[in-house]
Amino acid sequence: MNVKSAKSPIADELELFEQKFAENVKSKNTMLDRIMRFIIKRKGKQMRPMFVFLSAKIAGTISEETYRAASLIELLHTATLVHDDVVDDANMRRNFFSINALWKNKVAVLVGDYLLSKGLLLSLDNNDFEILKIVSTAVKEMSEGELLQIEKTRKLDIKEDIYFEIIRSKTASLLASACGAGAWSATGDAEKTKLFRSFGEKIGISFQIKDDLFDYGHDNIGKPTGIDIKEKKMTLPLIYTLQQADDSTKRRIIYIVKNQNKDRNKVNEVIEIVKNSGGIEYARSKMVQYQQEAMEILYQFPESPARDAMEELVNYVTERRY
Questions:
Q1: CA distance 29 to 212
Q2: Are 258 and 232 in contact (CB under 8 A)?
Q3: What are the angstrom distances between the C-alpha of 53 and each of 87, 180, 209, 281?
Q4: What are 203-238's pLDDT values in tens digits?
Q5: Segment (H or E) for 291
Q6: What DSSP line would sit under 97-153, residue for residue?
Q7: Given 1.10.600.10, 3.40.50.720, 3.30.420.40, 1.20.1270.20, which CATH number is that of 3-319?
Q8: Is residue 313 within a helix (H) or strand (E), and if so which, with residue range?
Q9: What is the pTM of this model?
């Protein structure tokens, strides 16, 4: 099970998309053009464009609008990553230097703005108003999710409903918009678009819970990292544990996360408490629940190579090792 085999029904489309995307980000400004080429060379697995094209193929027929939808998703997603690296003061992205590390923060912010404007113009020039609305809504929700997380992390008082609100906005909204935009570009059908948005949202939530589990060294991925605890991130296994714990254990966990989060032994102590409280099993059951709900939506569409590939992608999200 891997991303490569899930690409096969849309391999030609993805190849053409790469060319179109490179064309869409070109600039007459020499520095900008160099940075754009740098971004294109270091792009990841193309997960979001894959969700766009597979959704389009399952719902109807891939069109020129599908290519623009995939480009818009990729442009806005890349813009948010470039801005995130500035906000987080991160010097690396996918094992390469980040834009801000190589060209400094001011340039990185302007590059993010350029990518956003390119995406907006691509849609407006082609009257893709519904696609623009779907994707712009996701960017708004991502910003709101990040800000809600910052606000709540200060107090470490996140309850489960707030956690799901954060990841629904911060992580799942972009995947929801990728699937929704794909479906709309192929059909112009509001009902199918709504179904695919819901499908993408559920996959996005599953994806984030899987990320939460990595912090605890779950599923034979090696030693626990405790990175989320060090960064005072309230993830689902920890939230569940705090809900179940007695008052003294709860106080102990919160004290460590707030004041001793750089101490490896103390972080390991929290990891052990989470494991013993059933936090890992609980988070995993929630991840599987969202995955199954997504599959129920997918199975409303006829069997096809594209649907099989999408199923492969769904399984990859929850069974990946990194």
A1: 41
A2: yes
A3: 31, 11, 25, 34
A4: 999 999 998 898 887 555 555 677 887 877 889 999
A5: helix 279-298
A6: E-HHHHHHHHHHHHHHHHHHHHHHHHHHHTT-HHHHHHHHHHHHHHHHHHHHHHHHH
A7: 1.10.600.10
A8: helix 305-319
A9: 0.90
